[in-house]
Design goal:
With 901 residues, this protein is mostly beta strands. Helices cover 4% and strands 63% of the residues. It has a 36-stranded mixed β-sheet that branches. The longest helix has 15 residues. The protein is globular.
């Protein structure tokens, strides 16, 4: 590790000391500063662009150049004649203004080099070739080098701290609703321009009346010659370990033409390179957004997915994955666009994990618990989306989308608890959902605009849970309470559940444009929701027959059969006013709520009214600098499972009984955000403060019997609060880019255990720093450091965990044929008494390609070179804190052959 750091710091130092600065102003013939003028420096020896700048509002520019060189300086501005001259640098910095004159001919000026970054209204355009050095292979390798753009650890694209919701290629949707598939799979050699579309709105008629300032999309412009034919690559390879053979096959094929596009991504491997995780699947929205998202109503349909253990950074003891995805866009005529995609993901994963669980104490003598489990997960996930957009003229647009999801998942666990003993657990689920979206937009005239949006969801979930408890003595109290037969050799208890949801969410918007500075928005909407929940707990006996137990407490049942209906009718009024740099959008929504549930032949019903205010204030300090304030009051409604009063077996150690009379909660939500992107010195700053206060929040009354707990929900009289702050500062210094960032989260909530209330406070902090280079010819590196603190105060018990994670990565193009990449990360996991575990990862790859245009590439790749066998992390809940250790795949060395179309 020290060797890597010393080498990287040496490269930084040796490069930086040879730099000089050329700065000044770009002005017109009258001496007026010209904002957004382009200035570039071309090395007269290599004929390559050395540096570039875009002037700020004062006309200032600054270029970082090498000493003792001759450069051709070009300065341009729309409508002006391009200024061009040679500049010789020495060891001292140079200051000189550049004057431009009107170009009366107004002929287009052709420059030898394109500007690396251009601003065209709300669009930021990056010239990809200006940031490449030859080691890039996928889109994400380019994006990581672009100022203002980040690719996070999950592969998702972020701009100014905001997640990009849509990626297009040549204006056509690329797997709408996900940016990871684009960043991980589009070949870098096909990318000409990266266009960042700020204030993005898919409906042109609404761009003047909707707040799209926080919406970002990215459009990838392909190189000339990458149209009307296939491009992409096919990767195949393998290797060998003592345990088994290794294999990988990844075809990634793309076809684009003016009228249609076809994309196919495939991936089959057992190297742990997961192309599409379960989290990706369940987070994949397909581009859908609920019409009522701004109404102030939040109804939770719940999630009944299996309690799958999650992959830790795509690492587990063993992973086999299969993935296939296809995307199609077709425009049979100018007024009609058709598109769709299909995704299949299959994974078989083995996870070995050890946990040390510390439960909240409160002098209740709840024992701490050590658990070990060996888990096998199998999942098959499928998704299909079809979309149509019909726009016969500028005043009408009709959109229709349908997304269908289905999956088959199974998880089996060999589990051991230091308190409960040996447990076998089996979980299965085969859910499906169909989500349809219909939107119509009509512009009556320039002052009157209408929009109708409707979304319908059908969802069916059928989770099954089975636990076999070998140590009967540790489970006897719970077994007797449920009514299990205690004469069997073990307790083999199971539960079948089924949750069916049907929801319609629709609204009609009307905008009246009062003048250039203000407009009025009226909204009429409704949410209609119906959920049915059935469950049954039963016991498998030694003779394989089934026994239906009856709880000792006659007020409880092991069976649920409940229907839950919810209706929200609302009217929203919002007024938008622009005044100078300020934009005010105050408003409110008036709601008539009605809900009821029927179970055990009894009906419970509640009707009430509520007015929910909201306020948005935007301060546009500069074109690329703004402050945003948001306030919103929300009403939160629960799902059917919290209302069902029959017993539910969530886990072997967690039983649940709902409350039919649960009331809604409501919350105050405040957000203050700041964004700034300065193209003069390539400084990117963003930060946000968030505060949430929840009143009448649903909390659980928890009663422990040893580590086995029973929960029942109720509306707490005590408010829960959450505060978070996060930010990042990033700046480029010539070929170096530095960034620092961090986030802080504080949450306070009330917990009720054994009838006693205590306040639980959690503090989490993460700080990170990064230094990255972007040399064209020299090797590049990235040095990063992350430090996190997890501080949990559970009444009279407090725990603290610390994680230190320095890392370094390095890549180099050698002799223009060999690409060498390596990355190293060290992790130290500790508590207040010292280190609990330290682990490190080192990966490397060496590839050979005859030249940039070669069709074949040969790659040797090694992962986990140090053969680290485990890593650690900490997690917390409202009743416990745990430190986890899980085992990961061993050292893999594989050979790969890549063929580029």
């Amino acid at each position: 590790m020290k060797l890597f750091l010393k080498l990287a710091l040496y490269l930084v130092f040796s490069t930086s000391i040879a730099q000089v600065t050329f700065q000044g102003k770009v002005i017109d013939s009258l001496g007026t500063p010209l904002e957004m003028a382009n200035v570039i420096a071309i090395d007269t020896t290599t004929k390559l662009m050395e540096s570039y700048a875009i002037t700020n509002k004062m006309g200032d520019f600054k270029l970082s150049l090498k000493s003792n060189q001759v450069y051709n300086i070009q300065a341009s501005y729309v409508g002006m004649k391009t200024a061009e001259f040679n500049l010789t640098t020495k060891s001292e910095s140079i200051k000189r203004d550049i004057k431009l004159y009107l170009d009366n001919a107004l002929d287009e000026v052709q420059l030898v080099y394109e500007m690396p970054v251009e601003i065209r209204g709300d669009t930021l355009v990056y010239n990809a070739d200006s940031f490449k050095n030859g080691t890039e292979r996928k889109l994400e390798d380019i994006l990581k080098k672009l100022p203002g753009i980040e690719v996070n650890d999950d592969g998702e694209i972020e701009v100014e701290g905001q997640r990009v919701q849509k990626v297009m290629v040549d204006g056509k949707d690329f797997f709408d609703g996900d940016s990871k598939l684009a960043s991980k799979n589009i070949p870098s050699n096909a990318v000409d321009k990266v266009q960042v579309l700020k204030n993005y709105g898919e409906v042109g008629q609404l761009r003047g009346v909707q707040n799209n300032q926080d919406n970002y999309a990215i459009n990838i412009k392909l190189k000339e010659g990458k149209e009307n034919f296939w491009f992409g690559d096919i990767k195949a390879g393998g290797g060998y370990t003592e345990a088994n053979g290794l294999y990988i096959f990844q075809p990634k094929l793309f076809y684009y033409s003016p009228n249609y596009s076809i994309n196919f991504i495939g991936d089959v491997n057992n190297l742990g390179e997961v192309a599409f995780t379960r989290r990706d699947y369940f987070n994949f929205s397909g581009g859908f957004r609920m019409p009522s998202r701004q109404s102030g109503t939040n109804i939770d349909l719940g999630s009944n997915n299996l309690g799958f253990l999650s992959l830790q950074n795509d690492r587990a003891a063993d992973i086999e994955s299969q993935f296939a995805a296809a995307n199609l866009s077709y425009s049979p005529k100018k007024t009609l666009d058709l598109s769709g995609f299909a995704i299949y993901s299959g994974n078989t994963t083995r996870i070995i994990e050890n946990n040390s669980v510390i439960y909240t104490d409160n002098d209740l003598n709840i024992p701490d618990e050590i658990t070990n489990n060996n888990t096998l997960q199998e999942s098959q996930l499928g998704m299909l989306k079809l979309s149509a957009k019909y726009k016969p003229d500028v005043n009408n647009q009709l959109d229709y989308d349908v997304v269908a999801k289905t999956s088959r998942e199974e998880q089996t666990q060999d589990f051991f608890s230091s308190v409960v003993g040996e447990i076998d657990q089996i979980e299965e689920i085969n859910p499906f959902s169909i989500n349809q979206n219909l939107n119509y937009y009509y512009t009556h005239n320039e002052d009157n605009i209408f929009a109708f949006e409707a979304q319908h969801l059908i969802q069916d979930e059928d989770p099954f849970y089975n636990a076999i408890l070998r140590n009967k003595d540790s489970y006897v109290t719970t077994a007797n309470g449920i009514g299990l037969d205690n004469l069997q050799s073990n307790y083999n208890v199971a539960q079948e559940k089924r949750v069916q949801s049907n929801q319609l969410d629709a609204k009609l918007d009307y905008w009246n444009i009062l003048n250039k500075k203000s407009h009025l928005n009226l909204t009429v909407g409704s949410i209609l929701s119906r959920q049915e929940f059935n469950s049954e707990i039963f016991q498998f006996l030694d003779d394989n027959s089934q026994f239906e137990p009856v709880p000792v407490n006659t007020d409880l049942s092991n069976i649920n059969d409940i229907t839950y209906n919810f209706t929200d009718l609302y009217l929203g009024v919002h007024y938008k006013l622009k005044s100078g740099i300020f934009t005010f959008t105050p408003g409110f929504s008036a709601h008539a709520y009605s809900w009821n549930n029927t179970q055990f032949n009894e009906k419970y019903k509640d009707d009430f009214y509520r007015i929910l205010p909201d306020l948005n204030i935007r301060v546009q300090l500069k074109k690329s600098e703004r402050i945003i304030f948001n306030y919103r009051m929300q009403t939160q409604f629960t799902d059917v499972t919290n209302l069902a009063e029959g017993l539910v077996l969530n886990r072997y150690n967690s039983l649940y009984s709902g409350n039919r009379a649960l009331d809604n909660a409501f919350s105050h939500n405040v957000n203050l955000s700041y964004f700034s992107f300065n193209l003069f010195n390539y400084t990117n700053v963003f930060g946000s403060l968030n505060y949430n206060k929840r009143i009448d929040q649903i909390r659980n009354l928890t009663n422990f019997e040893s580590v086995i707990r029973t929960n029942s929900p109720f509306n707490s009289d005590f408010a829960d609060e959450n505060f978070s702050a996060n930010g990042r500062f990033q700046r480029s210094f010539g070929k170096l880019r530095a960034s620092v960032g961090g986030n802080f989260n504080y949450s306070k909530f009330n917990q009720f255990i054994q009838g006693e209330r205590s306040v639980n406070e959690n503090y989490s902090q993460t700080y990170n720093a990064e230094l990255r280079t972007n040399f064209r010819d020299a090797p590049n590196f990235e040095i990063a450091y992350r430090y996190s603190i997890q501080d949990n105060d559970q009444g009279n018990r407090r725990t603290k965990f610390y994680t230190n994670s320095p890392s370094v990565s390095f890549d180099a193009l050698i002799f223009k044929t060999l690409t060498f990449k390596t990355d190293y990360a060290y992790n130290n996991f500790s508590d207040e008494d010292g280190t609990l575990n330290s682990f490190e990862f080192w990966n490397a790859s060496l590839s050979y390609r005859k030249n940039a245009d070669s069709k074949l590439e040969y790659e040797l790749k090694a992962t986990n070179l140090l053969d680290t066998d485990r890593q650690s992390q900490s997690t917390n809940s409202n009743i416990s804190v745990s430190a986890s250790e899980y085992f990961i795949q061993p050292r893999f060395i594989s050979f790969r052959l890549i063929y580029s179309l």
